[in-house]
Description:
The complex is a heterodimer.
Chain A: E1 12-17, E2 20-25, E3 29-30, E4 35-40, E5 43-48, H1 50-56, E6 59-64, E7 70-71, E8 76-82, E9 86-90, E10 95-100, H2 103-106, H3 110-113, E11 122-126, H4 129-132, H5 139-155
Antiparallel strand pairs in A: 1-2, 3-4, 4-5, 5-11, 6-8, 7-10, 8-9, 10-11
Chain B: E1 7-11, H1 18-34, E2 39-42, H2 44-49, H3 52-59, E3 62-67, H4 73-80, E4 84-90, H5 91-97, H6 111-140
Parallel strand pairs in B: 1-2, 1-3, 3-4
Helix pairs in contact in B: 1-6
Amino acid sequence: MNNLENMASHKFLEITVDKFIFKVATDRSYSREGLWVLQDGNHIRIGISDFLQQRSGDIAFVEIKPVGSLLTPGDEVTVIETIKVNISLTCPVTGAVVEVNPLLDVNPEVINKDPFGDGWLAVMEAKDWENDRQALLDAQAYFNLMIEQAGQELGK
Amino acid sequence: MEKDLKVIIVACSGIGKSFGTVSREAAYEVTGDIRPDDTQLVALSMLVMGDEKTRVAVAGNPAITIDGCKLGCATKMVQESGGTVTREFAVLEVYRRYKQFKPQGIAKLNRAGQQLASVLAEEIAVVVDEITTSNQGDLRA
């Protein structure tokens, strides 16, 4: 079984902040914005973290760059509209979009229900993974960042 | 003469969110303008407080709930009060079908939010008609 097929069996770091429980899957990397990145060979699957989906609220619409788009880190890869905010997220890797989650057109709330699994956004063919991965956080580092951000949210 | 059967309308009580405001505006439109004779507006806060008169009204009539978010407070409170939710509406689901009506504003909705509330109110009115027609059939049977 490869990494992409194994998404349902990942383990989590977990913390309760106020009334919220936030999870971070340990089998992948993260951008500071809250996109997760799961590498398997030349393919990179991306999605949004549990913390980001909870902080953003119920998702109304998701727009993702279409298959064939060539992106580099910093390029916008998705715009997500929730009941609270519109968020634009930048691509964490260099490469081409080769697959977009077809569920999101008809059932965008799958991101809220299963952000690390069925709610994935897109698969990309990586062009410079060894370089791009240097800018990503491992699960523990993102977990620490998330705790900091959650504390800031709570203090608002 | 006042009708015996009233369809109870319970909206989200969320203050500070546009989607909650849309739910309440739709409820006001149905109960005040479109189907005033067939519906009764019930404040969610009265159910939360356990007001007996409100609880009896909810327990004795079919209810339509309008929730502003996935917490579904309106639906849960009607059920916990002994009522029967005949139909649940979620503002987000209606918005997904009418993307052009993006609600903004809280105390005062923008024009698009008002249009979304009106669309939702019309959908609720259709369900109200189904309930009242069905009930008349039951009474004749």
